[in-house]
């Protein structure tokens, strides 16, 4: 292993590997790239434990555009990531998102978001209760006032498939991967000069990228820097229905969408089962090694879904797990780009549950900053580190 690289990336899951892919795919970048990953199994990575979905239904234009690029990239992923004739299949299930609103405040948010989404060409429609019922006959709509439905461009896909595709292609294009743990970061004034590994090796670098997920603050602290990111636990549950409503929709070839109930509970088809989760009533930071599901949340999920559909009254729990959001406590949005003073320390952190879907656009953006000193395609400056310094949240109203 070399002892010097132009770019060192801390974290080898989907974000770090996306940055490595876009760097090594760019003919204008001729430097060396090293990705350092502490856990080669990725068993507890946010990537591996994610519900792995993508949407364009956000309130901020840049988040809509990030989602739109992600959709296009995922659709073309097999061809783009081909290595030696192997084309990774992400099994992209374009089932759409269905946001349901039952209060005046929720309706207003959906309408405002819709104007932004439509202005950018997102394939999203607003439906009245009778239209919701006509499209998805199993739903009870008496309490609903409005819904926002993504007719295309949204759905779910293979989480590890996305990560492994990026990793394999980046390696084929010349990136090096190292299984080790960064225990120290060397800094000389306003520049990062290298990293110290648990194995004892020191590797110098020209640029350092923090792609360490929920451990982002721990990584930044090694360089004497701060980032408001902490691990927040999210529990996911897979259940079976005595009488499944999948196939009953009158749109999208009978396929059901990922539905977000006004209560905050969501569910979507997952093969012959359903995947579900809900916003925690209490949402503290957790230990980096705490992956015990909050089993009590399933009772709330069951109650919410049974009220929404008779089909969900008789369900049986099949599987469950917990993963971590890399939660940005300032505004629940990604932080992408350089530190305001230590310019060769770049953040790709705080995705707050949107890391998989935002990895293509953010990976590309970080690679552009490294190569050109600026964002060239999507301008990610709104979600840069400067807002952290100013303590000015970049608020997103469509957070699940």
TrEMBL record:
<dbReference type="Pfam" id="PF01266">
    <property type="entry name" value="DAO"/>
</dbReference>
<protein>
    <submittedName>
        <fullName>FAD-binding oxidoreductase</fullName>
    </submittedName>
</protein>
<keyword id="KW-0812">Transmembrane</keyword>
<keyword id="KW-1133">Transmembrane helix</keyword>
<dbReference type="InterPro" id="IPR036188">
    <property type="entry name" value="FAD/NAD-bd_sf"/>
</dbReference>
<feature type="domain" description="FAD dependent oxidoreductase">
    <location>
        <begin position="6"/>
        <end position="369"/>
    </location>
</feature>
<dbReference type="InterPro" id="IPR006076">
    <property type="entry name" value="FAD-dep_OxRdtase"/>
</dbReference>
<keyword id="KW-0560">Oxidoreductase</keyword>
<keyword id="KW-0472">Membrane</keyword>
<feature type="transmembrane region" description="Helical">
    <location>
        <begin position="7"/>
        <end position="24"/>
    </location>
</feature>
């Amino acid at each position: 292993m070399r002892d010097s690289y132009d770019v060192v990336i801390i974290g080898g899951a989907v974000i770090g590997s996306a940055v490595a892919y876009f760097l090594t795919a760019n003919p204008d970048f001729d430097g060396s790239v090293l990705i350092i990953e502490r856990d080669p199994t990725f068993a507890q990575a946010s990537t591996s434990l994610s519900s792995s979905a993508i949407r364009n239904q956000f309130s901020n234009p840049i988040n809509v555009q990030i989602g739109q690029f992600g959709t296009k990239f995922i659709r073309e992923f097999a061809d783009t990531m081909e290595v030696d004739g192997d084309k990774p299949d992400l099994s992209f299930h374009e089932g759409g998102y269905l946001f349901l609103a039952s209060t005046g405040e929720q309706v207003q948010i959906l309408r405002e978001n819709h104007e932004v989404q439509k202005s950018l060409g997102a394939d999203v429609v607003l439906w009245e209760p009778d239209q919701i019922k006509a499209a998805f006959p199993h739903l009870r709509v008496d309490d609903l006032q409005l819904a926002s439905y993504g007719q295309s461009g949204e759905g779910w896909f293979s989480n590890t498939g996305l990560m492994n595709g990026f990793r394999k292609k980046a390696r084929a294009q010349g990136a090096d991967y190292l299984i080790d743990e960064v225990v120290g970061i060397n800094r000389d004034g306003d520049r990062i000069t290298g990293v110290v590994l648990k194995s004892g090796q020191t590797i110098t670098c020209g640029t350092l990228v923090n792609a360490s997920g929920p451990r982002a603050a721990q990584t930044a602290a090694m360089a004497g820097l701060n980032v408001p990111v902490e691990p927040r636990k999210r529990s996911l549950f897979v259940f079976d229905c005595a009488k499944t409503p999948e196939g009953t929709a009158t749109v999208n070839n009978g396929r059901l969408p990922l539905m977000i109930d006004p209560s905050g509970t969501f569910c979507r088809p997952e093969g012959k089962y359903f995947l579900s989760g809900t916003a925690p009533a209490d949402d503290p930071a957790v230990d980096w090694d705490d992956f015990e599901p909050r089993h009590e949340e399933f009772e709330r999920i069951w109650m919410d879904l049974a009220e929404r559909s008779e089909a969900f009254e008789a369900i049986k729990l099949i599987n469950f797990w917990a993963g971590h959001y890399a939660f940005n406590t300032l505004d629940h949005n990604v932080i992408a780009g350089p530190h305001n003073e230590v310019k060769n320390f770049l953040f790709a952190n705080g995705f707050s549950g949107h890391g998989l879907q935002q990895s293509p656009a953010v990976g590309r953006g970080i690679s552009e900053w490294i190569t050109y000193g600026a964002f060239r395609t999507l301008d990610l400056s709104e979600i840069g580190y400067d807002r952290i310094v100013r303590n000015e949240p970049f608020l997103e109203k469509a957070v699940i």
